[in-house]
Structures are given as structure tokens and as C-alpha cells.
Amino acid sequence: MAAEGAGVTVSVDDSALDAAAAPLLDKLLVDGVASKLTAQDPTLWGADAEPEAAIRLAWTTLHKTSRPLIGEIEALRAELRSEGIDRVVLAGMGGSSLAPEVITGTEGVALTVLDTTDPGQVADALAGDLDRTVLVVSSKSGGTVETDSHRRVFARAFTEAGIDAARRIVVVTDPGSPLAELAEAEGYRRVFLADPNVGGRYSALTAFGLVPAGLAGADVARLLDQAAVVADVLAADSADNPALRLAAALGAAHDAGAEKVVLADTGSGIAGFGDWAEQLIAESTGKQGTGLLPVVVEGPDAPGFADAGTDAVPVVIGPSAPGAKLSTRGPLGAQFLLWEYATAIAGRLLAINPFDQPDVEAAKQAARSLLDDPAGLGGGAEPATVVGAVQVYASAGTSGNGGLADILREFLDTVPADGYLAVQAYLDRLDDASAALLRPELAKLTGVQTTFGWGPRFLHSTGQYHKGGHQNGVFLQLTGGVEEDLDVPDRPYTLGSLQLAQALGDGQVLTDRGRPVLRLHLTDRAAGLAELVRAVQELAS
Ligand SMILES: O=P(O)(O)OC[C@H]1O[C@](O)(CO)[C@@H](O)[C@@H]1O
Predict the structure, then answer these.
(1) In this structure, are strands 87-91 and 133-139 parallel, antiparallel, or unpaired?
(2) Residue 504 Cα, ligand 1 centroid: separation in angstroms?
(3) Terminus-to-terminus CA distance in the chain, angstroms?
(4) Nearest partner of 156 among 486, 490, 489, judged by Cα
(5) Which residue, 67, 82, 247, 388, is the most exposed by fewest CB within 10 angstroms?
(6) pLDDT tens across 269-302, in order?
């Protein structure tokens, strides 16, 4: 059954799921949820959520309210280009970088995204042509440690290159944030103040999505046009509303035990939509022991998609494919708004507040404590064992004994049949890109849903779900040796120590909550990854 609005389509390709969703859809219609959401009614998620919802719903009208930004972005871009500045580096985590990355990737426009603390990856961005570079520092709160660190290292690099750093830094933040104050004090070139009544993961069509993408050269006016075309359809209390259909289907799937949403692209023409949707779905719904776990896979033929079990619902972005139970089609601006509506409405069906992220702070605190006590950064205990370039740090429940294949087998056996395995690679997502190949291999080997995330990027996405959602995850952390570290100006830590503290901090929080965690530290990254792949192959044979 397809629900087709102007510019966007949702098909429920599984008749059992469609039937199960019908009563939920009816209830959403009776309750007038679509129109109330569009009118920014904060009561839709219950009394506890109301105060937060009251300051988080302005995204429903951004296709109108963001219009004035377009001219401002174009003017700044023209000004920068007239000075020969045409390379845009974006420092921002989660909602402050995922949308611009998708927008520019879709248009084939170059944008260097820094959402990492990996020293090698940051050093590579610093090694680009600084004479032509503008740094966009995006942070809603203005206090995110990764983003602040990028600002510091770039400001120093500009100065050392004889460039006036203040003229090369553009800020996107909320009014009154510490970053807004700092930008004023430092005289940064331009500050775009975003609408504070939109949360980070719903901010694709605010200054957070539009400024970096537009400065890089993407056609951001077109995005707003695409959203405007579908806005009325998504606001309608109609059985043909694609967002209501999508939300009802996801809610029905969850009720039936399919709490994982496997996302594959089938030629949508959008680059990396799954990574953006992952944060939206995981941070919005993964809390109070419930939620939807997004599992972004390589395509509809990837392990975990067509062979998904009853604990997962396979969804495609683009034309339907064998095994898909749901598909969503439409241009990027329309899909942003569709998924925002559907996720907020699914939050109502799951009876949670889709606008907070209560469990993200725990890992941040643990990382801070480790940075305050650098002795803890030694990795705490000695490795249980060392196999070639791989040091093994096992948490309770796994012995860490034997060869790498034995250790992995023992660890993977701890994943419950209806659980999931999360591979968390605190590595360089460009130079160590091959680590991502572990996801399909491990999914095939274990037969359980398997996610892959780059650390610390995923901490601002699935990290919320890991700690707040269904507690059936098992976590394989990969950390790596650092060849050349970067100190963070006027801070008592280096990027390398921050990255390790983030891994150990999150690992500690997960362990404290009874989740199995195995950390493999690759003293030589390439050799360690190769050994790991060999161990997985050995288990598969
Ligand atoms: O824009 P900020 O405040 O730097 O936050 C970045 C990201 O961190 C989180 O607040 C929490 O992980 C996300 O929700 C957000 O998108």
C-alpha cells in the first residue's frame, strides 16, 4: 500500500505489516496528530515531555522561516570567493554536521567534515590549502568538546600560516551560547544564530544544515523548495499522509518485536541519507529501555537486509527491492521533513520524548573524568592478551584468552539471538575506511543485526540508543595507535588522549550497565585490521 503526496512516497510493501499498522494509523488520525504537530502542539508526547517539546518544534515550518538565510549565505559565499577562499571545512558533531554532509555529498560538492577526534584525520584536514580555507564551527550548545578542539587547532594553524584566524572562522550556534559569546569576543568573521526552538537532529533545514552546505556551493534554496512541496501533505490528518503511514508501520513493527530498522539505499540519488536518519531515529527513540535501532547497511543485498529476522524491519530509501517491507522515495528536502515527522510521531507511539537525549551525557562525563586522571588513559588494566598488532581488553564475561579468532568467538557468543552487535571504530574514517568492511562480515558470521559506527561520531547518534534503548547490545570497540598526536591549544589534552578517553569512557558506561564490551587496540592500525579480518574469515570457514 503506497501513500503518495506531492514529491514524496511511502510504500508499505508487506501486507502483514500494513494490516498491523492500520489501527495505529486510525488512532493517529482520530487524535489529529499530523495537524497538531504542524501547529507545534507540545502536548503530543505527554506531560513529562511537554516542557522540552515546547521549545523543539519549530522545524515544521523551516521551509518558510529559513528563506531569509539563503541570500545571506550566497552573499558570504561570494565575498569569500572574491578573496580566493573556496575550501570549506566544517567542525560539528551529530546534528551539526550530518545534514550538510548528506546535502553536499548528494550534489557532489566538496566539504571537509570534521566530526572526529582522530589526530590523523584532523591533521589531514589541516594539511589542505589553508590559504583557501574557511572553517565553519557549528555547535548548537556551543560547548561540544570535539568542535571546540577543532576550532582551537585550526585557529592556531591559521595563525602559524600568517593568516588572520578571525577572518577565516564562521560560526553557527544558538543565541546566547558560550560559542556565540566567544565569537563576538574574538571578532570571528560571521555568526549565524540558529533558531533555538529546533533540536540538533531536526536542524537540517536551519542554519546548521544550510550555512556549511551553501557556503560549499550546494543549492540550498532547492532543498527548501523540496520541503515546501511536501509540507501540506505531511501536515494533513489523512490516511494518505506518508509520514503517518511510515510512523504507524514503524510503530507496528516495534510492537511485533521488530525494534531494528535496517536502512538500505536502492538508488535514491541521495548520498548517505542513512547516516543522517540514523542519528534522528536513534537519539530520538532510544531511551527508557525502548526505541528503534537504525542499522545502516551497504545495500539491499547486504547481510542483515533481505535475510533480516523477526527482530528487524528492512526499509529502503529509493525504489523498493526484494526483502523490503517499507520504502520511502522523494528528493532530499522532502525526505528530511518526512523522516522528521515520522520519527516524532513514532516517538508518540513508543510513549517516549523524542526531543531529549538523556543518556548521552553519561559517556561525556566518563571521558571528562578520564582526562582529569590521565593515569586511567593507560587503558586501565594491562591487556588480557596481545596477538600481533592487536591488544585485547576484555570486559567481564569474556576471558580474552586464546588466539584472536577464539577471543572473537567467545565474545560473539554473548550476543543474544534477538540482540545486536555494535562495532565502534575510534579510527580515521578516511585512512582506516576498510574497518567498515567488518560490518557485513560480522553480520554474516553472527546472523544478528550488526551496526558500524565511527567513534566519537556515533556517540552523538546511536550512542544514545546503546545506553538508553533496548538493552540487548554487545559492543566491539576498536581503538588505534597514534603516530603523530595533536595537542589542543590551551587544553590539558591531545586529540589522541581525548579520542581514547571517549572510547574508554563509553566502554565504562556500557560495562557498568551490564553490557559486554571487547576492546581491541590496534597498535599498528593496518596490520591490526588485517589480523582482525583474518580472524573473522577463520571463524567463517
Ligand atoms: O550542536 P552541538 O550542541 O555541538 O551538539 C552536537 C550533537 O551532540 C548532541 O547534543 C548529543 O550527542 C546531539 O544531539 C547533537 O546533534
Answers:
(1) parallel
(2) 20
(3) 42
(4) 489
(5) 82
(6) 999 999 999 999 999 999 999 999 999 999 999 9
92 and 109 part of one domain: yes
Helix and strand numbers, DSSP H then E, in the chain: 20, 17
pLDDT at 2: 67
Ligand 1 pocket: which of 93, 198, 208, 211 to mutate (most atoms <8 Å of CB)?
93
> Rounded CA gap, 288 and 351, in Å?
10
| CB-count burial class (<10 Å; 0-12, 13-18, 19+) for 16 | exposed
The answer as to whether 1 is a domain residue is no
Question: Residue 179 carries which side chain, given as an amino acid letter?
Answer: L
Contact yes or no for 446/471 (Cβ under 8 A)? no
Q: Ligand 1 centre and the CA of 139: distance in Å?
A: 7
* Final residue belonging to a domain, choices 164, 190, 223: 223
Pocket of ligand 1 (CB under 6 A): 93-96, 139-141, 144, 147, 200-201, 283, 357, 360, 460
Domain boundary among 292, 319, 349: 349
Q: State the residue range of the domain holding 369.
A: 360-484+491-540
**Would 355 be classed as within a structural domain?**
no
Q: What is the CATH number of the domain that holds 519?
A: 3.40.50.10490
pLDDT in tens, 327-344: 999 999 999 999 999 999
CB contact at 8 A, 457 and 509: no
- Nearest CA owner, ligand 1 atom 16: 95
Residues counted in the chain = 541
CA triple 530-275-125, angle to 5 deg: 65
Query: What does pTM read for this prediction?
Result: 0.97
